[in-house]
Amino acid sequence: MRIEQIDFFYVSMPVIEDRADGSQDALVVRVQGDGQTGWGECEASPLVSIAAFVAPMSHSACRPVRDSLMGETVNSVDDIRCLSAKVAANSFDMLQTPHTLSGIEIALCDALARQKKMPVYKMLGHEKKYPKLAYASMLFAPTPEETGRHAREAAEQGYRAVKFGWGGFGVNLEHDRALVEAIRKAIGSDVRLMVDVGTLWSNKTDEAIKRVQMLEEFDVVWLEEPFESMEYPHYAELSRHCKKLKIAAGEGSHSAAMAKNMIDHGKVAFIQIDTGRVGGILPAHDLAEYALKKGVQFVNHTFTTPLALSASLQPMIGIEKFDICEFPVQPTQLAQDINRPLCVTDRNGMFDLPDGDGLAIEVDLAALKKYLVQVKIESHGKVLYESPKI
Amino acid sequence: MRIEQIDFFYVSMPVIEDRADGSQDALVVRVQGDGQTGWGECEASPLVSIAAFVAPMSHSACRPVRDSLMGETVNSVDDIRCLSAKVAANSFDMLQTPHTLSGIEIALCDALARQKKMPVYKMLGHEKKYPKLAYASMLFAPTPEETGRHAREAAEQGYRAVKFGWGGFGVNLEHDRALVEAIRKAIGSDVRLMVDVGTLWSNKTDEAIKRVQMLEEFDVVWLEEPFESMEYPHYAELSRHCKKLKIAAGEGSHSAAMAKNMIDHGKVAFIQIDTGRVGGILPAHDLAEYALKKGVQFVNHTFTTPLALSASLQPMIGIEKFDICEFPVQPTQLAQDINRPLCVTDRNGMFDLPDGDGLAIEVDLAALKKYLVQVKIESHGKVLYESPKI
Questions:
Q1: Strand order from edge to edge, sheet including B36-42
Q2: Which of A241, B49, B213, B370 would disulfide-bridge B100, Cβ 3.0–4.6 Å?
């Protein structure tokens, strides 16, 4: 397949609310060539990732991402690896590069697997899929009562694992305890519970350590992202204070090397990878193998669409030991509309990828059109980017 | 000072050549408020960094950089630190954020120090400036003869340290030897020599190890960036193969935590920091203190304008032990035109910052105008950015 066309579709809800819900917009990527089509998605900040695709060259190691890709040929997984290495070398002084590349790489994997008439995970060498225990990923509500109600609803829907994050958690110890207690009461002792603080305690290790005992008391499986992505000394110190509680992190990784450092120096027990940030499916696949070797559990990071969920699960779906997956349980209307099929869990709270070639997710162009943001970028008297016509 | 206005000036040479010369364009930042003005510069890819300043919010941790800054008040160094932390928290899912922030932070430091009527390094707590041995930073020419000629010219101009990088170096061992030999012959034994390979050998540790002996034979002080920024295991392994040769790296650091990891886990002897990428002057200052404590030498990374050179030197100029600085010896006409004074070394190859408040560098608006690139970014039916009128 020769890469003839790469299109970026920036779609958005009409109003973006000021909350930690990553499904309010999306940057969907379509790659086309030789009659083949593949779809992918970049995580977060569509306009900036589009800019990195088209920005004028600054010097030989700071080129627009598109310059390394257009006209190139992809006939194998190794070809995709080579192209990713080429982008990394040609654009390494442009920080946004891995986010832009991620969606394109996913689309290339989708197209290649479709051409080979096989699912992506089989192209990666996995024999079969293992359904995963889906954890309902939700935000803390302002009060313990409301948070408890959301937790109960999730358990009633059949989820056997829930994760709560962000909201007001992390500022007041007593309030935090009340929130976690309300959840545990609502879901009972059999449902796994995780807590995510979204890097809130960066450079405040004490704040994290203070909460370890309370989280262990309510049998929380993991505490997620207590600090920023590269604060390994803080991560390692916190781990030393935990008895049962494990630490999870890694969603901010924008390269396989970065995530490996989180495993080796941050001493996390769960490494969370978003294929829409880490450079796509192949570096995530390498990481899953690395995690397996190191006794660390690989978990997808996904808060957006079924397409992103499928992409982030491909590297782990064939590995039985990685038994739990993040599942966006309250996605926006946009995230429900633009892909088919919808991803749903079974009555036991298990999730399996749909069967089919590539990522086995179709993009609904009519729905994309409904949410498409009109963007135009001009520089040096030329139009560098304009939202594609649908 | 209340931040009333932040302007980004994208300036560029008329033609960007396909070579590793970072002085071909620049993103200059002006911050204004309460009658004060400060100037800064972001390193590389102007259009992408502008996009991160104005991009529509994706969710609560992915906001445009400007939203955390406009209208805020800066009266102390701590105020700047707080604003940087606010940007990091509000925009951490937007990868380009630290590059955009860097130029603004530098401009805030410049404005604050001017308001306090003192140089930035004094505001950081340093008593005095220590002139540095300037190393002439140059690119390998295609042949040993031409490379040797450039080296001789630099030595004749008074430079007592030279660094060669990029070009064709790193592919063929015999050619590499011929290049280094020609330089050493041209400069004699008294001039310090460094070699930079710009991450060429990522995941190819053997290629780096193969060259250690040859580089030691010609008394090369450091080998720079053999691998990508976060490949600590490769860095540490290479260090174990060196007798006299030291390893230098870190210019890609986009946070203080990242650079500290390079020191602690990559085992480099020289940590190279670009204030236009790492988040500005204050994180670089913290790093200089950290490096001092760890017995590692802090070196600026600068390949662009006098303004960027002044910014990158402020954190180290007051520390006598950090005795060598990068000095762009062949800057483009643009980099020579837009700032005053020009930075020059003395006849002994030493460089000292000009005296004056703030960064002690003035921006020539008429020259900026000459090189200004007209950019327009529209989204959601609104103009998000348009190049400022001069």
A1: B5-12, B25-33, B36-42
A2: B49
Residue of A nearest to B61 (CA): A20
As given in the structure block, the two tokens for residue B288 are: 């200089």
Q: How far is CA B208 from the centre of its chain?
A: 24
**How near does any CA of chain B get to the CA of A21, in Å?**
6
B234: three-class secondary structure by DSSP:
helix
Largest separation between any pair of C-alpha atoms in chain B: 63
DSSP string, A27-83: EEEEEEETTEEEEEEE-S-HHHHHHHHHPPPSBTTB--GGGGTTT-B--SHHHHHHH
Indicate the residue of B20, B95, B228 with minimum beta-carbon distance to A60. Answer: B20
Q: How far apart are CA A102 and CA A162, in angstroms?
A: 27
CA-based diameter of chain A, in Å?
63
Within 88-117 of B, beta carbons closer than 8 Å to A belong to: 88-89, 92-96, 98-99
The reply to whether B199 touches chain A by the CB within 8 Å rule is: yes
Distance CA B177, CA B184 (A): 11
Model confidence pLDDT, tens digit, residues B316-329: 999 999 999 999 88
Contacts of B41 (CB under 8 A, 6+ apart): B26, B27, B28, B29, B103, B106, B276, B304, B305, B307, B308, B311
Cβ partners under 8 Å of residue B44, min gap 6: A58, A59, A62, A93, A94, B22, B27, B99, B276, B277
Residue range B55-112, pLDDT digits in tens: 999 999 999 999 999 999 999 999 999 999 999 999 999 999 999 999 999 999 999 9
Chain A contact for B232 (CB, 8 A cutoff): yes
For an interface test with B, give the residue of A8, A15, A48 to mutate (most B CBs within 10 A): A48
DSSP element (H, E) containing A25 = strand A25-33
Q: Which two tokens stand for residue A92?
A: 């390494």
Contacts for A142 with CB less than 8 Å, ≥ 6 apart: A167, A168
Neighbouring CB atoms inside 10 A of A239's CB total: 16
Helices (H), chain A: 46-54, 77-90, 97-115, 120-123, 144-156, 173-187, 205-217, 232-240, 256-266, 281-294, 306-313, 333-337, 365-371
Secondary structure class of A209 (helix, strand, coil):
helix
What residues of chain A lie within 8 A of the CB of B137, using their CB? Answer: none
> Position A131: which residue type?
P
Tokens of A233: 């000394």
Judging contacts by C-beta atoms under 8 Å, the chain B residues touching residue A56 are 12, 16, 25, 47, 373
> What's the number of CA atoms in the CB half-sphere (13 Å) around residue B40?
33
The CA R_g of chain B, rounded to the nearest whole Å, is 21
Asked if B52's CB is within 8 angstroms of A45's CB, the reply is yes
| Encoded tokens for A183 | 């959840």
A374: contact with B, CB 8 A cutoff: yes
Contacts of B325 (CB under 8 A, 6+ apart): B132, B133, B134, B135, B299, B300, B302, B313, B316, B351
Type of residue found at A382: K
Q: Which residues in A195-218 are b (16+ Cβ under 10 Å) and which e?
A: bbbbbbbbeebebbbebbebbeeb
B341: preceding bond cis by omega (within 30 degrees): yes
What does DSSP say about strands A246-249 and A270-273: parallel, antiparallel, or unpaired?
A: parallel
Burial class (CB in 10 A: 0-12, 13-18, 19+), A356: middle
Mean pLDDT by 10 residues, chain A (390 residues): 98 95 96 98 96 97 97 98 97 97 98 98 97 94 96 95 92 97 98 96 94 98 95 96 98 96 97 98 98 98 96 98 93 96 93 97 98 98 97
Rounded-to-integer distance, Cα A324 and Cα A162, Å:
11
CB pair distance less than 8 Å for B228 and A255: yes
